[in-house]
Amino acid sequence: MKLSTAEENYLKAIFKISEKAKKSASTNAIAKHLSTSAASVTDMLKRLAEKELINYEKYKGVTLKTEGIKQATQLIRKHRLWEVFLVKKLRFSWDQVHEIAEQLEHIESKELIMRLDAFLDYPKFDPHGDPIPNADGKFTIRSQTPLSDMHKGQEGKLVGVKDHQTEFLKYLNSLNVKLGTIITVIDSVPYDGSMNVILDGKNEIMITAAVAQNLLIRKG
Amino acid sequence: MKLSTAEENYLKAIFKISEKAKKSASTNAIAKHLSTSAASVTDMLKRLAEKELINYEKYKGVTLKTEGIKQATQLIRKHRLWEVFLVKKLRFSWDQVHEIAEQLEHIESKELIMRLDAFLDYPKFDPHGDPIPNADGKFTIRSQTPLSDMHKGQEGKLVGVKDHQTEFLKYLNSLNVKLGTIITVIDSVPYDGSMNVILDGKNEIMITAAVAQNLLIRKG
DNA sequence: ATATATTTTTAGGGTTATCTAAATATTAAT
DNA sequence: ATTAATATTTAGATAACCCTAAAAATATAT
């Protein structure tokens, strides 16, 4: 089924919201996610339900039907593959790629994505450490812990970030924190949750709780 | 100024039509080029005129204003750069790239195009031999002659094709005729304009006038 | 359990980009 | 120079997305 950019964006929003909340997506949540009005969301939900892409009952929130999940997953696949392309091949920095990938993900061509995937050597994770679903929609699972949950003496590699905002990523750049950085917890302050950590066994820096919650670590 | 995909397609159509015809584009010509109705064209022309992108007087045809030319040229630049990417990096064949590039050309990011251009090593021509305008909109000019205008004994390199249709390009594939092929005219038949030519000094083949008119040769 | 607050839907509009059919202007032909 | 043919524009609709304001449904708080 061929969808419009708007329809695709709604499916992706519903997917992300219900994934995070582990329940159906509310009209308001979708409206906020897409920076639009609740009335516009209701409007679109009716059309998506008509096309059998979502389960929608008035006032009850929405979930994706099988075809909706498939479409949303493929969009995420395309978005993340393009992000890898932008960073690995065009040398963009990880804080510059979201908006462009947001456009590129709507390009329609199965062949293009197959070839792009091969060209990039079948990456499993994007530049923010998010898993790239394969052509069948399967995500690679990886054990990871927010830095904020780690204890004094523990060590691990930074494998992902939760917050993708430019502001946050630029701040990490300024701290010289990037995917692959080895982080060792020196101590954590119970009072405010801030932590002192060592990066790659070299520089010691202080990280606030807000930041630590958004850094995903593979322990060991 | 930010334009819609539809507006961009109209500007590109007007550019191509008036370039080929060397005069203003008619409503019907635009309608045919975009496979739409004349009424829709009139409608859009009013809006483009309102935005100062074209010169439009009822019943008189249209020409592009400076800003319209600039936008059309940048679209052509983007389209052709993406085609180079698809063929050179993703190994698509020259007959498969038009539709995909047609979508990619609407992606909006100056930075993306700058980096793509660098990544591709600043190509001057696309996979069909069409010149790629530079960031300032300047096209590289190259002397070229349709094969149909060449005479017995003359030789040259295939540098471009006029017809971009999949059918035509696939036919050339089957003849093993590609950009860079050296073509030597053995003789031409005045009766129907067909020609016997040698490819790369090896195989002799016969080419009809219809095909010869669409092959662009750099003599010598 | 009832009042209040919040969420969601409906009603009524607006814009963009299409369409077909009808009217009008231009061009070509005799 | 009329008439016929062709090209173009106008008129009137439709569909997709979006909006604000008002109404209705649901959730919450005392």
Describe the structure.
Two copies of one chain form a homodimer. The first copy, chain A, has 220 residues and is an alpha+beta fold. Among the domains of chain A are: 5-64, Arc Repressor Mutant, subunit A; 145-219, SH3 type barrels (Roll), CATH 2.30.30. Chain A has eight helices and eight strands, in the order αααββαααββαβββαβ. Chain A has helices spanning 5-21, 27-34, 38-50, 66-89, 98-104, 110-119, 166-175, 209-212, and strands spanning 54-56, 62-64, 145-146, 155-161, 182-188, 195-199, 203-207, 215-219. In chain A, the strands form two sheets. Chain A has a six-stranded antiparallel beta sheet with strand order 3-8-4-5-6-7. Chain A has a two-stranded antiparallel ribbon with strand order 1-2. The relative contact order of chain A is 0.10. At the A-B interface, α5 and α6 of A face α5 and α6 of B. Chain A binds a DNA duplex (30 and 30 nucleotides) through residues 4, 6-7, 26-28, 36-44, 47, 58-59.
